[in-house]
Amino acid sequence: MTTWISKPLAALGIFVMLGACDTVGPAAPLLAGLKPPSEAALPIVPLRQAQMMRGKVTLVPPAGYCIDPESLGENFALMARCDALGAATGGSGAPVGVLTVSFARVGKSLAMPTAQEIAASTGLGQPRSASSYSTGVVFKTTGKPPAVGLSPHHWRSVTRVGGYTMGAALFGPQDRRAVSEEGAELLREMIGLTTARTKAG
């Protein structure tokens, strides 16, 4: 299963000028496009969790990340640092990155693919730093980034959550925290939180 960014997000613009830091200043001109029009009745509020697959899965982002409500579909969500999405608080200590997640219905008995099988079937680069567990795999690979300023080196995961497969991709600026081992920890945190919240109902 391939997880690509397939819906627009204004916050992608913040990554073009990040360069050598993992901070997003409140006065940065590149954030200006994230503000709602002055005549807007209500601002769009980033989400801390979302119901996916008709409420069968509860998606929970890793710490410091929020869900972009404009990207949200039944089986797709795009996440970024909460402050990058316009949240009043949260996100300042998290790595700058763009995290996409998609879901597909599968049988619970279906064997999960390996990192090598995922890379081969989706045209990604040779997987590295793969860690497999009972319900899935997290690995580093290369592929076309979704925006200028993001590294082709990124993290992927495929995990079973109940009767669904959750595929995720985390991109970040070149040589920054999101593409380091910290990026893999972000994916593992999201997987753990989402799995626990989904089981809890």
* CATH class category name: Alpha Beta
Walk across the major sheet and give the strand order. Answer: 3-4-5-9-8-7-6
Corresponding CATH superfamily: Mog1/PsbP, alpha/beta/alpha sandwich
The CATH topology corresponds to: Protein Transport Mog1p, Chain A
Number of helices: 2
Helix content: 10-25%
The overall average pLDDT, rounded, is 81
Largest sheet: 7 strands, antiparallel
> In percent, how much strand structure appears in the residues?
25-35%
Q: Please name the CATH architecture.
A: 3-Layer(aba) Sandwich
| Structure classification | alpha+beta
Based on CA atoms alone, the radius of gyration comes out at 16 Å
How many structural domains in the coordinates? 1
Helix/strand order, N-terminal first: EEEEEHEEEEH
Shape: globular
Q: Measure the end-to-end span.
A: 26 Å
What does this structure look like?
The chain is of the alpha+beta class. The chain has helices at 115-122, 181-200; strands at residues 50-52, 57-59, 65-67, 76-81, 98-105, 128-133, 136-142, 153-161, 164-171. The protein has one domain: 3-Layer(aba) Sandwich (Protein Transport Mog1p, Chain A), CATH 3.40.1000. Strand 3 (65-67) and strand 4 (76-81) form a beta hairpin. The longest helix is centred in the last third of the chain and has 20 residues, at 181-200. The protein is globular.
Short description:
This protein has 201 residues and is α+β, with helices and mostly antiparallel strands. The protein is 14% helix and 26% strand. The chain contains two helices and nine strands, in the order E-E-E-E-E-H-E-E-E-E-H.
